[in-house]
């Protein structure tokens, strides 16, 4: 049995109408991925299956500096105690070979005086290496072996002191300690500046000692696939800033706003407000410079994922002039205010300039309307205050009541009319 045809033509049915409707792009939810750089600047990277572990021993000093404090202190203590024990054994062998521990030779010349046991040899080893010199034990000129051991222990002790104390000094004066006082805004913003769509962040220095030759670099990290099908999990793309284009270092005296113009060379050129929230990119910010007080190069890092980039916001001003002094309010360091910004991509703005013009006109109209409302509210408040004071001032000027009397027909009674 044949199927009965529908009265409505197929092109006007629901499937036909749905096929002809313009389809909007469907954005998939962004999959949460690990950050490459944490907010505090630490690298979220784990090294596994390193077979050439001996390379770390070739650079012992850097390895000791990179170790954690507890391991460094353990190595520091173990090194000194081991050297004391090693040379204590040497002094005990010298005294034993020369016969200093023999009671029968008590009155004869000794290599080291008052070394009669291993404990006394250990105490003498500490005195020699640390140069305490209590004076109870000492070597004599009659034993060449003792003089040789004394020279060797002094040389080895100086080397150990130089390496371990240098390691402790470098750990306490590391550049990342200075980077703790270099701060970044919690969020990045995208807004229109000088008629161009810009990506902006704010940086600041909490110390009065400046960072000499400070430079800021931006990198966009994202997972990409080449035309040949090669998948690159961490593709780093350099992003130019206004300071980098001018090839001048930053004068980081007060908090600055770092601006990146989103042009055709920017990796953010094709991203709109909605596409940005669904993307998996990460913007890394690197601030480098020389510490003025120590002369050590320092580096501070942070990153911004798509959830931390606010589209259509601008940083509020935090620098004011108070009594001839510029004051910085760090409580508003990361505060932003919403401004009129097209939600389309920078490419679309370049192809359709009227979108930006319409947005700016709407922003100007809304600003004028808000000013009118504000002025009218002030005028109404002033009129209310003025009317209340006028009523209060005229309350004592109420005219007295006047009575008018009209005669009646009989002429005898009068009616009072007020």
Q: How large a portion of the residues is in β-strands, by DSSP E?
A: 15-25%
- Continuous helix count: 11
CATH class of the domain at 178-352, named Mainly Beta
Along the chain, the helix and strand elements come as: HHHHHHHEEEEEHEHEEEEEEEHHEE
Count the beta strands. Answer: 15
- Average pLDDT taken over every residue: 78
- Output the CATH homologous superfamily of the domain at 178-352: G protein-activated inward rectifier potassium channel 1
The biggest beta sheet reads: 5 strands, mixed
Description:
Strand 11 and strand 12 form a beta hairpin. It is elongated, with a radius of gyration of 42 Å. 36% of the residues lie in helices and 22% in strands. Mean pLDDT is 78; it is low at 1-7, 17-31 and 395-418. It has 418 residues and is an alpha+beta fold. It has helices at 14-20, 54-58, 60-66, 69-98, 118-130, 144-172, 175-178, 242-246, 273-278, 346-351, 354-393; strands at 182-184, 188-193, 196-205, 211-225, 231-239, 256-261, 282-291, 297-305, 309-311, 313-315, 319-322, 325-328, 336-338, 404-407, 414-417. Helix 3 (60-66) packs across helix 6, helix 4 (69-98) packs antiparallel against helix 6 (144-172) and helix 5 packs across helix 6 (144-172). It is built from 11 helices and 15 strands. Strands 1, 2, 3, 6 and 9 form a 5-stranded mixed sheet that branches. A 4-stranded antiparallel sheet has the order 5-4-7-8. Among the domains are: 59-172, Orthogonal Bundle (Helix Hairpins), CATH 1.10.287; 178-352, Immunoglobulin-like.
């Amino acid at each position: 049995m044949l199927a009965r045809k529908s009265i409505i033509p197929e092109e006007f049915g629901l499937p036909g109408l749905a096929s002809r409707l313009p389809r909007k792009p469907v954005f998939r939810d962004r999959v949460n991925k690990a950050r490459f750089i944490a907010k505090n600047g630490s690298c979220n990277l784990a090294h596994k299956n390193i077979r050439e572990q001996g390379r770390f021993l070739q650079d012992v000093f850097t390895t000791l500096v990179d170790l954690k404090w507890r391991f460094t202190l353990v190595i520091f203590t173990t090194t000194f105690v081991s050297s004391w024990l090693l040379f204590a054994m040497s002094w005990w062998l010298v005294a034993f070979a020369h016969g200093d521990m023999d009671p029968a030779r008590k009155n004869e010349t000794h290599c080291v005086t008052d070394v009669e046991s291993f404990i006394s040899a250990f105490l003498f080893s500490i005195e020699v290496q640390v140069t305490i010199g209590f004076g109870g034990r000492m070597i004599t000129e009659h034993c060449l072996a003792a003089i040789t051991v004394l020279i060797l222990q002094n040389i080895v002790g100086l080397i150990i002191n130089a390496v371990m104390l240098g390691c402790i000094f470098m750990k306490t004066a590391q550049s990342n300690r200075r980077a703790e006082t270099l701060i970044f805004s919690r969020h990045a913003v995208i807004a229109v500046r000088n008629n161009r769509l810009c990506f902006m962040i704010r940086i600041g220095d909490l110390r009065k000692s400046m960072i000499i030759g400070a430079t800021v670099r931006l990198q966009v990290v994202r997972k990409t696939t080449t035309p040949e099908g090669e998948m690159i999990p961490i593709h780093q793309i350099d992003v130019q800033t206004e300071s980098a284009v001018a090839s001048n270092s930053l004068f980081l005296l007060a908090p600055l706003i770092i601006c990146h113009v989103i042009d055709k060379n920017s990796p953010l050129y094709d991203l709109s407000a909605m596409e940005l929230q669904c993307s998996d990119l990460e913007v890394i910010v690197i601030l480098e410079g020389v510490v003025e007080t120590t002369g050590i190069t320092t580096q501070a890092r942070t990153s911004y994922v798509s959830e931390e980039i606010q589209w259509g916001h601008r940083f509020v001003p935090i620098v004011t002039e108070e009594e001839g002094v510029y004051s910085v309010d760090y409580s508003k360091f990361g505060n932003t205010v919403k401004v009129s910004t097209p939600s389309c991509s920078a490419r679309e703005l370049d192809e359709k300039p009227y979108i930006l013009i319409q947005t700016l006109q709407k922003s100007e109209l809304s600003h004028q309307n808000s000013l009118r409302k504000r002025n009218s509210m002030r005028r109404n408040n002033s009129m209310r205050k003025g009317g209340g004071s006028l009523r209060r001032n005229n309350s004592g000027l109420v005219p007295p009541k006047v009575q008018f009397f009209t005669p009646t027909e009989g002429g005898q009674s009068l009616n009072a009319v007020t």
